[in-house]
Amino acid sequence: MFPALAVARLLRERGHDTLFVGTREGMESKLVPEAGYEIEFIRIGGLNRVGIRRQLKSAWQLPTSVVAALNLIRRWKPDALFSMGGYVAGPVMMAATLLTIPLIIMEPNAIPGFANRRLARRVYRALVGFDSTARYFPTGRVEVTGLPIRDVFFELQPKATGPFTLLTTGGSRGARTLNRASRESWPLFRSAGVPIRIVHQSGTNEHLTLAKQFAESGLQGEVVPFIREMPDAFANADLVLARSGAGSVGELAAARMPSILVPLPFAADDHQRRNAEALAAVGGARIILDQELTGERVFKQVEELRKDPEQLARMRESLRSLARRGAAQRAVDVLEEAAYQKNANVR
Hints:
This protein is α/β, with parallel strands linked by helices.
């Protein structure tokens, strides 16, 4: 949602109207109206990596959702459609191709989602986050732009003073595996007398329990339910332990922040693992699989990197190749170009 909102803000600044399409159950139902944009809702569920009952329900909803999307497009008469992919986007993308509306997609993950793969040959332009993703789309209709990331991430400098700081985040809701392994690691850091400060984003569900246990560990730092200003957290960290969703890896690359990544094992098409591998391939991250994550693994991996500042510096430098600015601006440029060509052809 946040990259899509970044594109919408630029469209509005350039004088264009925008309409979001989503579901009432998704984050968009709250975030889009809060940002001041119109939104229409359709009913659709996922088809990939969900149970058979969910698949059957989504398949049954699909024709109705496509018809609803067709009616929306006929009523709104858009000049172009911008999609970040996902199951919500599938019916709208299908409707757009049926009505010959230019389709511009942004694929932030290392492997495209189900909807983007199915309609790859029908896109006007695909804007992708990684070089390896370009092979899924037609030559000449794909660009490596990266993901819209706030400029402040690109401007962060390595922390120069203070104790070595580990930032752990499992996303806005936290991650139970990361919470468990982190809790197991705290006594190990304490007993080893490691000079470390830990900032741990737990999510709201486990916050009170983890905060109490962390206070009892005697370590420096804090456990918080949610970090609203992640750039500030990055600025005060030396190393990040995190999941590897597209937004997270984009921010890590932009900030040139060394990381230990634990891909979510249930992510569609195992895309979080592919995202993590993209950062690891250039030397900017280490990977621990979810099923292998223990407090001891966290302790050993963090200690190895903490004791080797030259390695951390090399990891930071290697991430420059993945840090790309201007993705939102490029998306808006392509949308305007597609809309101009569509209207020129109509005339």
